Every structure is written in C-alpha cells, then in structure tokens.
C-alpha cells in the first residue's frame, strides 16, 4: 500500500522534480543490455513487447534486402520506432521514460530467447539489433551520448599529445599545426576491435593497435555492442534447454522466431469500418481485384472466374480477405452465389451458405475470424493457394506477374529485381516491390512500400493501402465542388 | 647429375623413403603444438591427405607426432595439408553434434602465387619460374613482412617456399591464431590493393577520391620505389614491348600526356623501360601544379600496381582453409617446400632448393660410407635438408619459449 501510493505521487508531479536521472532505473536512452530484466511481467506483456520490437527488426531486415541507403533506413526505422517502440531523450520530461525504456529492455531480452536457437537466427538478430542501435546512437542527443559512453568502460586509451606529435604525419591529413594536434582526439584500441575501419584502411596501425580518430569512435562502440551481443546469445542458447519446462513461453517464442520470415503478422482488422459510405458491393469485386488486390488474391479471383469454383481452403482464404475488405455477409452470399454459376440454388444453400455465414461469425461458435496474414499464407499448410511468390515456379511466377500486372506498369525489365528477392527468400519484399511498381502512377516511389517504408505483411494491408491511394483524387474533386 | 633422370618424385617408393627417413615430423609437431608435448593445438588439428588418383581424405587428426608419421607412411600421400584447430578432434567429426564441431584457431596464412603476376612478368609465364621472376616474390615478402610486424605487431612469422612458384606465410602469434573469419577478412582488406580478376582488368582500390595515399601505403611506397626501378624497369623491362607500354599508358589519366608519350615511343621502339619512365617523369615535372598532382598520384599508383604483393585473398579469409604443410614435396618439380629466412629472400634461388631425388642420393652416399643404422629418425641431419629443418626448429623453439614464459607468469612465484 505504502509503495503504490508513493509511486503515484511521483507520477503525479513529475515536473516539479528537479533532477531524476540518478533515480531512474534506466539513466540512458541507449542500452547495451548487459543486465537481464529482473522484474515480473505478464505473459501478455512478454509477447507484446517482443512483437513490437520484432516489427522494427523485421523492417530493418527487409530494408537490407531492398537495398535502402543508410538515410532511408534511418528514416524508416525512426518512423517505425515512433509507432511501436518510442524511446525519448532525457530532456523529454513529461514522458514516462522508465516505462519506455523498460519496454525496450524487456523486448530485447525476449527476442534474445527467440533468436538464440540457431546460428542463422543469431546472425540475423545481431545484424538487425546492431543496426537499430546504430540508428539510435546517431539520433541520440550529443550530450546524452557522451554521458552514456562515459558510463561504460570501453577500454580505450586516449592518445597523448606527445604520441600524436610523434605520428602526426600518419594521423593527420593536410596542413598540421599544434592546435590541430591538440584539438583532435584519438583513441588507441587493439585493431581487432575495429575491423571495419581496418578493412577500409581508415585508421593508423602500429604494433597491433589502431589509432581511432574521435569521429570514428562510434565504430568501437558498435563493434563492442555486436561482440557482446554475440557472446550473450551463445550463452543464452546454451541455457535455453532449461526453459523448455515452461509451457507458457515456448509457443510464444516459436511464434516469434517465425516472424523474420514474413515480418510480423499484423492482425488486420478492417479500417474501412461502418463509417465508410462507399460500401463494397458484390459486383465491384472484379474491378477492385484488377486494381487493388495483391498477387495471391488476384490468382484466387482468377481461378474462381475461370473454374467457377474454388476449393475449401481457397474459399476460406479469399472469403475472409473479402470480409475484412468490407464486403457484408449479404453481399458475400450474393458474390459467391453468382460465382458458382454451375451449381443449383439448392446445393449452394446446403453446402456453401453455411460456411460463408460461419466465417462471418453467424454460425457455429460465432467467432469473428481474422483474415489470413502473409505469415499464415506463406507457411505450408493444407491450402493449395499459398503465396505465389513462394509457391510458384520461377517461370510460372514471371509469366503470371507479367500477365497480371503489365497493365499497371510492370514491365519485363522489373522482373530480374523481383526474382532476385524471391530467390533470396524475401517473398514479402518481392510483393512490396510489385506494389511500388504498380502504384508508381499514384506517386509511390521505390522504398516507400505500403506507406512509411513498411513492407507488405498482410494481403488486406496491401489492398487497403492501394484503395486509399486511389481515393484522394476523388476527395480533391469534391472539395472543388464545395 | 640430372635430378629427375633416375629418381622420379611421383613414384610411391621415393615418397615413402622420404617420409620414413627425412620428413621432420617432430619439428612440424613442435611448431603446430607450441609445446614439446601434444596440446589441443595439435590433437584437434585437421590434416588432409592427397592420395594418387585424386583421392582426398579430410578430417584426420592425430594424438602425437609418431601417430602422424605412422599414418603418413601407411597412406603415402603425394602431399598433405594442415587445417584449423577444431572444437573437437576432427576424426570424431561424425560422432559429435554438428553444432559442436567448429574451427576455433588457425595460423593466419597468406599465399602469394606467381600466376597473379603473369600479366606483368616478362621472363616466364604459367608454371615457369626463374631467379628473375623471384624478384616479384621477394618484393612481396619484403612489403608483407614489414607490414605484419610493424602494423599488426606479429612476429612469429614462418615463410615457406611452395615448391614451385609461390610462397606461403604462416603466422603463429597467439592473437593471430585466435582471429575470427571476420577479423581475417578485415586484415586481408587492409593488405589488398589490387582487386578484380584477369578479365575485368585489375584496379587499385587505394584512394578515396583524389586524396593522398593512406599511411600504410606511404610506408610501403618507400620500399617499392627502389624495387620498381630495379625490378620493373631494369630487370623485367616491363614497358619495353608495345603491349607493355600500352598497359602503362592506360593507367595515365591525362590524354594529352598519353598522346605525346605514345607518339615518342612508337617512333623509337627500342627505348628502354627506364628511358620511358623518365620521359613520363619529365612531362609530369613540367606541368603546372594543378595538373601535376593527379599525375604524380598516377605515378605512385603505377609503382604500387606493379610491385605491391598480389595476395590470394580467399586463403587468408577463412580459418578452415587448408594449406600444404611445410616440407612436403611438390609433385611436379620434386622440390621440398622449405622455410625461407625473409631477410635473405632476395638471395633465395628456387632452383637451388633440394629435390627429393637429390636428397635420396645423398642418403645413398651416406649409406655407402657409414654403417647402416637401424634407426632412421634423424637422417635429415646428414643431408642438405638440415639448414631448413634447423630453421623450423628454431622457429618452433621461439613459440615454445613464449608459452613457457606465459606459464611462468601465470603461476604464483614460489621462489624467494
């Protein structure tokens, strides 16, 4: 009781507090994650923190696959961080810094558990985490960064002025004077701590020590982060078998480690809610499919039109997609009735209508089923209608892409790039790239993805964004009329 | 006196006698193990054997020098290679968990091969090598040896002649042994200045923009200038032929200068490389400063391009790369892969290296004058192989001394 009331007090009056830094559990925005979180969390919090962080890491990883420049990657990552994992500077007084940093801390350690299991996962996790750290380091306030750096022992030796003088023609470029020698800082470390600088010959080496100029100091920090994380992950991997007894966590972790495959599966519940006046009608679907649907749904739609039929899992996948897109149950029944033109009313009512109503939560256990995400579509299951980027052969995929999207601006010149990402196993990146190409006329440029640089992680996200892009023109017209 | 006349280096009997009576297994053991007794550095080490008929046996390991010798004599390979120290004994590879079998340590190795110099050497080509082309190798040794010692601070270097037209470097410093693949890659990047293969045209990657040379190359340039004038200009006469000087002209960034030089050299095809180089220097000297600086940079680039070590980078980057063991016999030449003293590398003549045939004849000669001993262990002492084995022994004793000193330091000092 006493504790909780005290806590409340501090929360109520954060502005009156002069200096809270000493009391904070996390004095710095940056974190080397040396200490594991030792507080109680709910299973839900455990999963949410990790999922939010995973969204960011997955985006960082697909950025690499999409050849983004460092600046683009930085912007995209910052936007994503702002959405899912904000981390404010110490100067932001009105924000509960500890809460943000606690979430950052917890998320990192949960993902360590999920990604320590194989060499490949570890390598990818380290790369993504180090990139995230770099982004944060670069965007950190100069003074806070200095404080953070002095809070850790990086084991570097500042180079004395005499030593700088001794090697001045090696350390400095251009005209040299005493002021310059005094002003520029150098740090001496074992060369193995800055392999990237050594590889590019950007440091002076003497007797196994690298003389790192102040402006390259960050290289030492990043390398240290990477090495520490690598060691910690191997340690975690060795200890992980003991966790197997905890049946609550293992499924969560299994689910998380799948997340790198297709990004995080977003539970895409229709943004086109009831307030949306232009409701989707059954007869609009042909047109919508042609303009806005991702490849997987286009191919389902086409085989439905071609065969006047779809098998069970195809109907389920496509039906749920249409539901979330905004097709009401009445319209859905009308749509499927017309589509199955070769069967009788009687057979339709008996065999199919129930399933449609069931998927809308009107029959059986009345669950509101979400539409299948990319992750589910990508994972091999009973469905014969998976993700075309993954399940089609290379030749089929290329001809399908051309026949499906050539009217929207995709040309054979784009194919090598798409096929390269497909061959590298980045199916959602390929899909995102197709989105960008086919929406270039709406002003979508390369690297922008489905808004803010996000990759496709759900077919409905693809379709909704596509429809949203087509809309503004109409609104602008309306404004003129007003 | 023809070495290959009566003794064929590829015959199994010759190789077997060589392994039985001459190969210095003990010295090799001490060098790999860093101690007189077998340590993990020896017992967890991979050996790979090449048998006649392209049979390649990997993941062998041995608990002692005697066991290695026994196996070598039994298999009688044409040559064998040394790999990394693994986390488990390589011969148990199949029985350990796949995740638990990883390369941990390995000497840092470099391989310089004459083939990489084929576009610029004029005396021989392909497999051929003579005293004159050895100049390229000795230039490479000079630069690499200095750089490794001064810049990286390693000093346990063993240079080994590869038996035909190249040289290997094995670095056994503890820190060098422990380098990860990533760190090895960085070190190779630091050392590599010429990128691109034969087809795409080799390019220098040394300057960013129009900046001056990075410090390590400025140091190297001091050594290379002299080598350039002795080796490239005087001895090899690299710019003598039309193809030779056209290659030079391609490296000059100013088209006016190129035209003037080409005109002059076409008229007088017998001008020596030295004269051509001074023609170039004269033109550059007379240029106003703004034009002179990039041309001077181009001159430095030419010197580096023609003389800087051309490394086979893949050999050095990965711990699990196998490299032929010292004292093996090169199957084509019959010469022994002997260690070389880097201070004497200019004087080294590949054609003076003992061949297996020569060594066996020396043994025969001893056999005739001496009583046949029952024990053949140290027969190399009586042949011309001795100075080379002594060199490896001395190197190994340096390593062992280092380990002893460390152990002494680690134990509490009990002496009063």
From TrEMBL, chain A:
Which InterPro entries does the record match to this protein?
DNA_primase_C, DNA_primase_lsu_euk, DNA_primase_lsu_euk/arc
Q: Which GO terms describe its molecular function?
A: 4 iron, 4 sulfur cluster binding; DNA binding; metal ion binding
Q: Which Pfam families does this one have?
A: DNA_primase_lrg (PF04104), DNA_primase_lrg_N (PF26466)
CC cofactor note? Binds 1 [4Fe-4S] cluster.
For the keyword Transport, the answer is no
Keyword list (alphabetical) reads: 4Fe-4S, DNA replication, DNA-binding, Iron, Iron-sulfur, Metal-binding, Primosome
- Superkingdom of the source species: Eukaryota
Cofactor(s) for this protein? [4Fe-4S] cluster
| Any one biological process term the GO annotation gives | DNA replication initiation
Instruction: Identify the residues that bind [4Fe-4S] cluster.
Output: 296, 374, 387, 431
> Where is each DNA primase large subunit C-terminal domain found?
287-462
Write down any Gene Ontology CC term: alpha DNA polymerase:primase complex
Is Iron found in the keyword set? yes
The UniProt similarity line reads: Belongs to the eukaryotic-type primase large subunit family.
Q: What does this protein do?
A: DNA primase is the polymerase that synthesizes small RNA primers for the Okazaki fragments made during discontinuous DNA replication.
Query: What is this protein's record name?
Result: DNA primase large subunit
Species of origin: Crucibulum laeve
From TrEMBL, chain B:
Molecular function via GO: DNA-directed RNA polymerase activity; metal ion binding
Listed EC numbers: 2.7.7.-
| Alphabetical keyword list | DNA replication, DNA-directed RNA polymerase, Metal-binding, Nucleotidyltransferase, Primosome, Transcription, Transferase, Zinc
- The yes or no answer to whether the keyword rRNA-binding is present is no
SUPFAM superfamilies annotated for this entry?
Answer: Prim-pol domain
UniProt KW Nucleotidyltransferase keyword: yes
Class of the enzyme per the UniProt entry, highest EC level: transferase
GO BP terms: namely: DNA replication, synthesis of primer
Q: Which GO terms describe its cellular component?
A: alpha DNA polymerase:primase complex
The similarity annotation says: Belongs to the eukaryotic-type primase small subunit family.
Name of the protein described by the UniProt record: DNA primase
Native source organism of the sequence: Crucibulum laeve
